[in-house]
Write a structure and sequence with these properties.
- The complex is a heterotrimer.
- Chain A is an all-alpha fold.
- Chain A contains 7 helices and no strands.
- Chain A has one domain: Methane Monooxygenase Hydroxylase, Chain G, domain 1 (Up-down Bundle), CATH 1.20.58.
- Chain A starts with 7 loop residues before the first helix and ends with a helix.
- By secondary structure, chain B is of the alpha/beta class.
- In chain B, about 40% of the residues lie in helices and about 25% in strands.
- In chain B, a hairpin with a 2-residue loop joins β1 and β2.
- The longest helix of chain B is centred in the middle third of the chain and has 14 residues.
- Chain C is mainly alpha-helical.
- Chain C has 2 domains: about 140 residues, no CATH class; about 220 residues, MetI-like (MetI-like fold).
- Chain C is built from 18 helices and 3 strands.
- A 3-stranded antiparallel β-sheet of chain C has the order 2-1-3.
- The chains are: A mainly alpha, B alpha/beta, C mainly alpha.
- At the A-B interface, α1 and α2 of A face α8, α9 and α10 of B.
Chain lengths: ~250, ~270, ~425
């Protein structure tokens, strides 16, 4: 975007804002990574460390909020400066939600510890987690670099996450119908998957905000949604057919 | 003119100075009369050292009157009477220990409309040091002129034409020349009475950047009718209304959450 | 059934455009009339000026040339310097007139009658003898030789030669008689009559004989008087104005002073002359008719003008300059001297020149202090008796002689030239001091 301001302290203020967003985003990223790792490795100690660390993300969000209010009052930004500050507010609240989801995943990890493993499902979850982490990183990079094209790319990648979520949803329903012992862990896993899918949506929201920040217009077209879990139905017949088709 | 400081008041002021070593100017109970009409009513205000304090308020609220008390420019107005106490580093500026001419070498002023002398750029900046005897030889003067113009951010634009008249510069450059002229005598305080009101936005931005740089070495008091400028430029803000200080505090606090209703009404544009 | 016929909208109020358009013709006509009146006024003023100047130039231009008659004169040593010692006392007392007369007699040997001889001698000026003396004094080696000398013709001959006397009048009405005309013609055919530039007008003082009269005495007197006036009124006026404007407190006393100064500027100049007479001449006993006293009187007269003009010039300096100077820490005096005075100087100089020009043309106060006397010698210092140009004009204008008439106009032209020079000087000084702010 534009060159340096004549009043250099204004540039310093905006840089500080970027740094805070980057720091918050980095924290959230690492929270997510570690919570998924803890989940897959069934490491409850790691999970227990993640939960209180979320406070730091909340504190940063508050700090960013106060800072943007101060910037608006004292600098009266307009045009692109205004969009940067407004975007920072929205993005920081989104990152805070991502942090909350990561905390939630860790909470469920502790519950799932004593339950039978669902390696296949966990692998899917792990893959979803990797995808979403990459998306978060790219979205935040796009924000710092003010790169709308990078942001547009993030939007497209959410599709894969949604597809994975739909298939995992089906899979877990199938497990639950096969064996009642799986109901507890699968339900928790459902929530975990849903959390990760929501994180993907939120990250797309960050990307859209970046586009607005750069171009000054909201993205008109609807986001491609390939999450069909809300309409997924699995009947006992489907379970039987699946089992039969799985046999040679 | 002002009464001599009562011993008790002086001790209080000195105590305040000890408590807040960054206090540069301290005004207590300042009343200003133009003939029979009173313009300022018992102003109590502290100006911190090495920071920018801005005075805001509607027209005729007394902010210009107050700032002109700080370097005794009100002395030249017939019928103007100043009462109360104004201390600069603990010394009463209306007492007989400080002479008005000496005071104005310590407290410089930049005016609303740029008013360079109709002399060359060099002579404009060198005039103050010359009359105060701050330099003797030509190269000392050259030094002072170059340093002042560099600090004012004007050196690169005028270094090849120091002998041209000061009035041949553009408005923004003239104002920066006036700032260079003010800092050439190495004052401790710089007073600015609406310095950007006659300038376009780019020139204004340059001056604001300059003020940011200057505050590392000088105490700056700026009167401005643009609240946005006060918000951008200052660390402390005082809101004047009808000759009174309604509220004074950290600029951030004044503009995000002022304590007084009147302050909020003014800065949000709810009353003229 | 609704009446759908369109009813014409009632035009109760004309639009602004229409009203303005109607008034335009009247307004422009008024403007044209005004311009015409203004132009007429300017033309009338210029016409008067042209008539006055034209009249003066017409009457006076001939005074700048003078008829001279060349005679062969034998510088008889026995007449000029009988002792032969070239003693100045002897030289000065010699009868040069006799030598001239001898030369004329030689030229016109057939003039016998006493009356005719007298008329013949009157061809040359009465001061021709003195001219001859000056020539001999300058070069005593000429004594004993016969030299061709160009002598000033008498006033009547001079006027006649310039065509100022009507030949058609009967002889008894004329100043120049027929025989004189005949003699003149004889000289003319011999090539002895010439019209040369009248340097005497610029090098000689006043004289009873118009052909010998010059303005030098008056010019020097005027110059000395004006110098004294300037030296006194300029510094006093400037300093008074600076004090009143910059330093004096604004109270009732200064108001009274200001009113009095304004009134003094309008006081008739002759009153200053009376003051000069009473105080400078009678009380202090200063020499009468001296440029010193004249300068003092005129200084008093010009002082109010200079003070008023200087105060106006000081007032016109914008207060922002003063504030800027004070803000940097200049004292009141430094502010005034370094900043205000240089800016006010053009206005002050203009006021001074106006005052000086008025003083140059004043005669009434100087008449009162005695500068009306007939002064022949060119003054050498401010205490020598002198006269000034306007008084000289007045004295000459009194005389009915034709030759003085032309010299009066010529003196007026010199006075005007003096004024123009002063104004030019003022312009140059103004431009030198003018600064933009």
């Amino acid at each position: 975007m534009s060159k340096d301001h004549i009043v250099s302290s204004f540039d310093a203020d905006l840089s500080r804002l970027d740094n805070m967003i980057a720091e918050m985003g980095g924290l959230a990223e690492s929270q997510l990574a570690r919570s998924i790792e803890a989940l897959c490795k069934r490491d409850t100690e790691a999970a227990e460390r993640i939960i209180p660390a979320d406070k730091k993300i909340d504190a940063l969000e508050e700090e960013i909020y106060e800072y943007t209010v101060k910037l608006l009052a004292l600098r009266q930004p307009v045009a692109d400066d205004l969009r940067i500050v407004i975007s920072a507010i929205k993005i920081s609240s989104v990152i805070e939600r991502i942090g909350d989801y990561a905390k939630n995943i860790s909470k469920r990890t502790i519950v799932l510890k004593d339950n039978p493993s669902l390696t296949g499902a966990l692998n899917t979850v792990s893959r979803m987690g990797d995808l979403v982490q990459a998306m978060i990183k790219q979205a935040l990079d796009a924000y710092i670099e003010r790169d709308a094209d990078k942001a547009g790319d993030v939007r497209a990648r959410d599709r894969e996450v949604d597809l994975l979520h739909t298939s995992l949803f089906r899979e877990l329903l199938t497990y639950m119908m096969e064996d009642p012992r799986y109901i507890t862990p699968c339900t928790h896993l459902l929530f975990v998957a849903k959390n990760i899918e929501r994180i993907g949506d939120h990250t797309t929201g960050i990307a859209e905000q970046v586009h607005f920040m750069v171009h000054g217009e909201m993205l008109a077209d609807d986001r491609p949604k390939d999450d069909h879990s809300s309409t997924t139905i699995v009947t006992p017949e489907d379970v039987k057919n699946d089992r039969e088709s799985a046999q040679p | 003119m002002s009464q001599l400081a009562q011993p008790i008041l002086q001790d209080e002021a000195l105590a305040a100075l000890d408590a807040a070593p960054n206090l540069k100017i301290s005004a207590r109970g300042v009343d200003v009369f133009y003939g029979a009409k009173q313009a300022l009513f018992g102003i109590d205000l502290d100006i911190g050292s090495r920071m920018v304090t801005s005075l805001i308020g509607p027209s005729g609220c007394g902010k210009s009157t107050f700032i002109r008390c700080l370097n005794r420019m009100n002395d030249i107005i017939d019928g103007c009477r100043v009462e109360g106490q104004i201390l600069l580093d603990g010394n009463d500026i209306y007492g007989h220990l400080i002479d008005a001419v000496q005071l104005r070498a310590l407290v410089g002023m930049v005016f609303q409309k740029p008013n360079p002398f109709p002399k060359s750029i060099y002579d404009n900046v060198a005039y103050g040091p010359r009359i105060h005897g701050l330099a003797a030889a030509k190269d000392e003067f050259d030094d002072i002129v170059e340093r002042s113009l560099q600090r004012a951010g004007l050196w690169n634009e005028v270094k090849d034409r120091l002998n041209e008249p000061g009035t041949s510069l553009s408005g923004g450059q003239q104002q920066r020349l006036c700032i260079a002229r003010a800092i050439a005598v190495s004052p401790e305080v710089i007073l600015m009475d609406e310095p950007c009101s006659a300038l376009d936005p780019i020139a204004t931005a340059r001056i604001e950047e300059l003020i940011d740089e200057l505050r590392e070495n000088f105490t700056i008091v700026i009167v401005t009718h643009s609240m946005q400028q006060a918000a951008r430029v200052s660390q402390r803000t005082a809101f004047f209304h009808l000759g009174d200080v309604v509220e004074v505090g950290e600029t951030e606090q004044i503009f995000t959450n002022p304590r007084e209703r009147r302050t909020q009404d003014y800065i949000t544009g709810r009353f003229g | 059934m609704t009446d759908m016929a369109a009813r014409a909208p009632i035009d109760t109020a004309k639009s602004t455009g229409d009203i303005v358009r109607n008034s335009l013709k009247r307004r422009y006509a008024a403007e044209r009339r005004f311009k015409f009146y203004g132009l007429t006024a300017v033309c009338t003023a210029l016409a008067f000026l042209a008539i006055m100047l034209g009249n003066i130039v017409y009457k006076g231009h001939s005074a700048f040339v003078q008829t001279n008659i060349e005679l062969e004169i034998y510088l008889d040593e026995s007449v000029i310097d009988p002792q032969g010692h070239r003693d100045p006392k002897a030289l000065i007392s010699a009868d040069y007139g006799g030598l001239i007369k001898a030369s004329l007699r030689k030229k016109f040997p057939d003039v016998r009658k006493r009356r005719d001889k007298k008329a013949l001698y009157k061809l040359v000026s009465g001061g021709a003898a003195f001219e001859l003396y000056q020539m001999v004094l300058a070069d005593p080696a000429l004594i004993g030789q016969t030299v061709a000398v160009s002598l000033t013709a008498s006033a009547d001959i001079d006027i006649f030669n310039k065509g100022g006397i009507d030949i058609n009048l009967p002889e008894s009405d004329r100043r120049v008689k027929d025989k004189e005309i005949r003699w003149l013609e004889t000289l003319r055919t011999a090539g002895a009559v010439s019209i040369d530039f009248n340097t005497r007008f610029f090098t000689a003082g006043d004289s009873r004989d118009p052909e010998q009269a010059g303005v030098l005495g008056a010019v020097v007197g005027s110059t000395l008087t004006l110098i004294i006036t300037l030296l006194l009124s300029f510094p006093l006026g400037i300093m008074a104005a600076v004090y009143l404007e910059e330093f004096a407190p604004k109270n009732r006393w200064t108001d009274i002073i200001e009113v009095n100064i304004n009134n003094l500027a309008a006081v008739p100049s002759i009153v200053f002359g009376l003051l000069g007479l009473a105080v400078f001449l009678n009380f202090f006993g200063l020499p009468r008719s001296a440029p010193l006293v004249g300068g003092l009187v005129l200084a008093l007269m010009t002082l109010p003008t200079i003070i008023i003009a200087s105060r106006a010039a000081l007032k016109s300096v914008p207060p922002s300059i003063r504030e800027a100077a004070l803000g940097v820490g200049a004292s009141r005096l430094q502010t005034v001297v370094d900043h205000v005075l240089p800016l006010a100087m053009p206005g002050m100089l203009t006021g001074t020149i106006i005052g000086m020009a008025r003083a140059l043309g004043e005669s009434a106060p100087l008449l009162m202090i005695g500068m009306v006397a007939f002064i022949v010698d060119v003054p050498h210092g401010p205490t020598d008796p002198a006269t000034v140009l306007p008084v000289q004009v007045y004295l000459w204008a009194d005389s009915p002689e034709r030759a003085f008439v032309e010299r009066t106009s010529a003196a007026i032209m010199v006075l005007l030239a003096f004024l123009i020079c002063m104004n030019l000087a003022a312009q140059i000084l103004r431009q030198k001091f003018e600064r933009r702010w």
